[in-house]
Amino acid sequence: MAILKPFKGILYNSQKVKGDDVMCPPYDIISDDLREELYKKSPFNIVRIDYGKNSDAFDKYEKAKSLLYKWLEEGILIQDNKPCFYGYEVNYRYKNKTKILKGLIALVKIQELGNGIYPHEQTYSKPKTDRLNLMRACMANTSLIFAIYRSKEMITSKILGELKNPYINAKDLDGNVHSIYKISDELNINNIIEEFKNKPLFIADGHHRYEVAQEFKNEMDNLHPNTHDAPWNYVLMFLSNIEDNGYQILPTHRLLSTPSSVKDLLLSNSHFIVKPIDGNISDIEQLVENEGPFSFGVYLKDKKWYLLKYTGPSLEHLPEELRNLDVSVLEEAILKRFFPQREICYDIDINNGMKLINENKCDAIFVLRSTKVEDIEKVALKGLRMPPKSTYFYPKLLTGMVINSLKK
Prior knowledge:
Elements: E1 4-5, E2 10-12, H1 19-22, H2 32-41, H3 47-50, H4 60-74, E3 77-79, E4 85-94, E5 97-109, E6 117-118, H5 125-138, E7 140-141, E8 145-149, H6 155-161, E9 168-171, E10 177-183, H7 186-196, E11 201-205, H8 207-223, E12 234-241, E13 248-250, E14 253-257, H9 262-268, E15 272-276, H10 284-291, E16 295-300, E17 305-310, H11 320-323, H12 326-338, E18 343-347, H13 350-358, E19 364-367, H14 373-381, E20 392-394, E21 404-405
Parallel strand pairs: 6-11, 8-12
Antiparallel strand pairs: 1-5, 2-3, 4-5, 4-10, 5-12, 7-21, 8-11, 9-10, 13-20, 14-18, 14-19, 15-17, 16-17, 16-19
Helix pairs in contact: 4-5, 5-8
């Protein structure tokens, strides 16, 4: 189902820069303060291209374009002289456990969603406009789409496991070490291409970027007809085998702001069982996980935690693959139904959510269980989409490890 292609990647020159100084997190988790920190780290930090600051003096997309080609001219960035695949490895810690995420960086032929490549979440239009403007200006994929696939044969997984001598390393903000390896052996390249021919891909992180790549492809096809193998027919992806169990799917919790009294409504409603949680809570996520389906942790302005269990009617208006998901129950049966006047923010950091509530900036945080990868597969293969921010794949991939040119 997936058509892969090696490519001449653009990489930082490891003789001129240090990976720690020039890589950055994905644009959609960079705050204004963090962007300032990244700017100060290095005049060559990729954030200046991928998520640059606007100014009255210049257009940030034109500035990104000029920096990309200036750094190529100066040898800060260099392009490989032969097509490769790239191995990407992250050595990371999560809850005091050490894990390794391995994956393949490749060009993947753009297809209509649902035809070999499957989304699982709804998207917003604003981030797509920004990404499209950047792609038009730079004629490049500057950041990675994170996709997962399932292969029990593990051909690519074995190739990745044998890679040695990384080209460049970089630490992320959590201290995790990211490494890039080149795969140029022709036999390995052909074996990888062959393995993916019957494998569906599921977009884990980067739905906006994929939809933007589709839109950009359509624009370029209209300008340049009959160019079926042109660079814009492919998009840059990181592909991780579900069977490797290298990543974590974390829940994205919901912060609610509403004029309604959250506590009164929850305590008085027959659709919920609400129990105060006594004592200190060391791990509210684990407590909610242990409670099972339709259970949520709720922190309110009285500075207390509650365990909320939804016992109301089934969401019969939703397809079966969606109606039994905690994120759907929270979205449809609780937030939309009982808080019609609401604002929702998303955060994986529970302590940050509690801080905002204690400062009267929000009214409640709803803590969810993690979405299971099997549910992602079921929903995606049915052509359905979960609510926005249903998953948070960790660790986040760094931007700048490999760039793909879309120039002919």
